[in-house]
Amino acid sequence: MMTDDEPIFVIQKHDARTLHYDFRLEVDGVLKSWAVPKGPSTNPRERRLAVAVEDHPLDYANFEGRIPDGEYGAGAVLVWDRGTYRNLRAEDDEPVSMAEALQDGHVAVWLEGEKLRGGYALIRTGKGDDNRWLLIKMRDDEADADQDVTAAQPESVLTGRTLEEIAHE
Ligand code: MN
């Protein structure tokens, strides 16, 4: 169930210069964002590169459509999944804030989306100015090594459209 006091997540499929999935978490009034070239997996053995990119405003979570030619990120965008999340990080039974988790380079969240559910970890692997992280499904009852969720469910959770339909309208 979505309630107003739970932070949101959104994953936007974006056909810019290269196809990728923008994974975004609401933290302290903005959308913390990573570009995931292969998109999320439900298989805990799959480690998906996630490149930290600039924060986006909260209302961008509902954006679906075409970014015009000549603008940054030009190309079609669809809302591939959305929902709420819970922060799973704790140390010595004390909760670790999302801000601290981001600083640590170790984020763990429970997603309640329409396509994705369960625990996901984001682990920073890059050092210094290197923005590389890994997005990894945690081992829980929602893990599923046998499905390819991005291939099986390519369409928008807002409108049911595909990227091709958005690109050509
Ligand atoms: Mn993007």
Structure overview:
With 169 residues, the protein is mostly beta strands. It has an 8-stranded antiparallel β-barrel with strand order 1-2-3-4-11-10-9-6. The protein has a two-stranded antiparallel ribbon with strand order 7-8. The protein contains 3 helices and 11 strands; from the N terminus they run ββββββββαβββαα. The mean pLDDT is 95. Helix content is 9%, strand content 46%. The chain has helices at 98-104, 149-152, 163-167, and strands at residues 8-15, 19-27, 30-36, 47-57, 65-67, 75-87, 90-91, 94-95, 106-113, 117-124, 132-137. The structure holds manganese (II) ion (MN). Manganese (II) ion (MN) binds at residues 14, 16, 20, 22, 35, 73. Manganese (II) ion binds at residues 14, 16, 20, 22, 35, 73.
**Unreliable sequence segments:** none
- Summarize model confidence as the mean pLDDT: 95
Order of helices and strands: EEEEEEEEHEEEHH
Report how far apart the termini are: 33 Å
Structural class: mainly beta
| Count of helical stretches | 3
In terms of DSSP E residues, the strand content is over 45%
Question: What is the strand arrangement across the widest sheet?
Answer: 1-2-3-4-11-10-9-6
What hetero molecules are in the model? manganese (II) ion
What kind of sheet is the major sheet?
8 strands, antiparallel, barrel
Number of strands: 11
Overall, the morphology is globular
- Helix fraction, binned, reads under 10%
